[in-house]
């Protein structure tokens, strides 16, 4: 038998190097050079297996969502079902504690409080390295609508499995970075989605989901070996660089800085602002244009709009070390404002959603 990449995985990823060489070939060579078992063995004449049509391949909830370059809120279904209160318009003033899977975030910075500012400045200095601005230019089958649909579906999987919000932001960043260097078939977008969730979960979760759990979200279209093999390809493509300064990180830093400056009613109001900002920022992952903005700037605009919507006061907070022109800020602010208005228009029951995000990481 000959060690080669699975035809199904190879068909998903294409050639995009400037000199015309296939990235798949180079990655395969690297894997074989270090004697790594790629999991599937086929000969060169093995034909690519039949792939169902797009609507058959995609999960029914994904294919029938009606996404068309617009905001998809179907990913929040499990949020509305949170605590079994779907259909109940009662507003709860005391949000319940989150599941244990998210509690570890509160412990992440214990003992490192003195270094939080240094961590912030470091991530601020390297964020340009991870901003992807042209990931769809060389994609013949994937457009902004398909990307948004994928991210919406990934968000739903993330909520269903009760994963940390950090996991979702890192997973989506990996998706964009992979699409920036490799061509993808729309038939295999879900495989790309669950594999990036798997990678991000190993980085962020105390107990990452099993591969079988993630494959179950795809109705058994893909196999365990395909996921394991694609995981190797992805990690090689991004050079195992997973310490991404996400917009979620900057939002938490900004919000925490403001909340720690105020007490009493004003502090509680800012916590409501943070809850709304978390929701808006998470849903903004679906928007291709917003995904191309600097994470630090995007987070600041989302935070300012959330403060405005909740009628809070953050003391005209400006993040340290963040340099930008007035034109850049106003441009991104208008984009986020339009996005937020669209969200609030389509999501009238904001209170229930914000309740879920209020204590996303436990007692804060």
From TrEMBL:
Keyword Coiled coil: no
Alphabetical GO biological process terms: cell division
Gene3D superfamilies: Cyclin-like
EC number: 3.2.2.-
UniProt xrefs under InterPro entries: Cyclin, Cyclin-like_dom, Cyclin-like_sf, Cyclin_N, Cyclins_cyclin-box
Keywords in alphabetical order: Cell cycle, Cell division, Cyclin, Glycosidase, Hydrolase, Mitosis
PANTHER family: CYCLINS
Record-stated family: Belongs to the cyclin family.
Name this protein carries in UniProt: Uracil-DNA glycosylase 2
């Amino acid at each position: 038998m000959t060690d080669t990449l699975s035809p199904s995985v190879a068909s998903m990823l294409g050639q995009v190097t400037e000199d015309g060489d296939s990235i798949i070939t180079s990655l395969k060579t690297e894997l074989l050079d270090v004697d790594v078992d790629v999991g599937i063995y086929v000969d060169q004449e093995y034909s690519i297996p039949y792939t169902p049509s797009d609507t058959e391949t995609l999960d029914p909830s994904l294919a029938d969502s009606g996404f068309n370059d617009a905001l998809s809120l179907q990913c929040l279904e499990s949020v509305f079902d949170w605590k079994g209160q779907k259909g109940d318009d009662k507003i709860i003033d005391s949000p319940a504690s989150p599941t244990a899977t998210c509690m570890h975030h509160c412990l992440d910075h214990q003992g490192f409080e003195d270094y939080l500012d240094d961590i912030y400045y470091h991530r601020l200095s390297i964020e340009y390295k991870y901003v992807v601005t042209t990931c769809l230019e060389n994609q013949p089958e994937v457009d902004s609508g398909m990307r948004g649909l994928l991210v919406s579906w990934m968000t739903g999987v993330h909520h269903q499995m009760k994963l940390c919000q950090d996991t979702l932001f890192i997973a989506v960043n990996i998706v964009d970075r992979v699409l920036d260097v490799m061509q993808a078939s729309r038939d295999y977008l879900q495989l790309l989605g669950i594999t990036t969730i798997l990678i991000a979960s190993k980085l962020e979760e105390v107990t990452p989901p099993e591969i079988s759990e993630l494959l179950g979200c795809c109705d058994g279209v893909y196999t365990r070996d395909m996921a394991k093999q694609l995981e190797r390809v992805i990690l090689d493509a991004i050079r195992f660089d997973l310490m991404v300064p996400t917009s979620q990180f900057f939002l938490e830093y900004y919000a925490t800085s403001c909340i720690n400056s105020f007490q009493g009613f004003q502090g509680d109001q800012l916590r409501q602002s943070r809850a709304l900002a978390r929701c808006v920022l998470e849903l903004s992952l679906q928007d291709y244009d917003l995904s191309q903005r600097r994470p630090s700037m995007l987070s600041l605009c989302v935070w300012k709009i959330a403060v405005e919507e909740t009628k809070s006061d953050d003391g005209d907070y400006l993040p340290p070390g963040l340099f930008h022109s007035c034109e850049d800020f106003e441009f991104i602010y208008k984009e986020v404002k339009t996005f937020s208005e669209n969200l609030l228009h389509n999501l009238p029951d904001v209170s229930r959603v914000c309740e879920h995000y209020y204590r996303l990481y436990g007692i804060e």
